[in-house]
Amino acid sequence: MSSRFDGKVAIVTGGAQGIGGATARRLARDGAAVLIADIDETTANENRARIESSGGIVAVTRTDVAVAADVEAMVSEAIRRWGRLDYLVNNAFSVAGGGLDAGSISGGAVDISEAAWDRGMTVLVKSIFLGVKYAVPAMRQAGGGSIVNVSSVHGLLMAEGFLVYEAGKSAVIGVTRQMACDYGKDAIRVNAICPGHIMTERQGAQWKAHPDGLRFFEEQYPVRRVGTPDDIAGTIAFLCSEDASFITGQALAVDGGLTIQLQENVGVRLAKHIQANPGTWLPY
Fold first, then answer.
1. What topology is assigned to 9-200+226-257 in CATH?
2. Fewer beta carbons within 10 angstroms: which end of the chain, N or C?
């Protein structure tokens, strides 16, 4: 356990597993009291038990992050338990409006339905708006704070056939920058992180079945590996810390160098990889 965040209080949405789960564990390990806000109470409580076993301070509240009453109650629960709010990590996807899955929102502007567009904006963007709306007044009372919104490399670079996801993740970066302008005077910093491919629990099951596909993905990264939830959690902890006190409004790529490369060079490297490994499984 570290004392870096002693006396501080954090909310991590989607804190049951994956990036959110690792972030909840990291902030608790660094001394913060952490409220895990997640729609999956069973998995959230499993993470709670894991944190408590290491001496961390943690609680769980069921939250759908695109439902205003849920988000307001989430912030109120943190205040009720610990009397303040210092950090908000907007990580969760909402399930409001039917949730988000690639099959329901894939396609370009001509292909997707109006309902799919509306659902995507609710799941990806409205949740950020609501989290900040209810967190900022509490952070003002605490004398300031840090908000970290989880975007994606898909907010920086576009992929064919995924208009809704790319638009939503790009919007997360835009609202982050605007919110940083609004709340800097309150000593509240707002930043976004843009992860590359992260080996979460769910992704791990896919790659266990297709190790050749994982090797192909790793070949795309200058560091020759995909990311882990702990890679992202460490970055979020940094952005919450005083070490980042002069950083706000930024969209930080945490992607092993994926977005810095000249694409034609990467294409040649991957073509050589396929030639050397015929039959490689590809997810797209």
1. Rossmann fold (3.40.50)
2. C
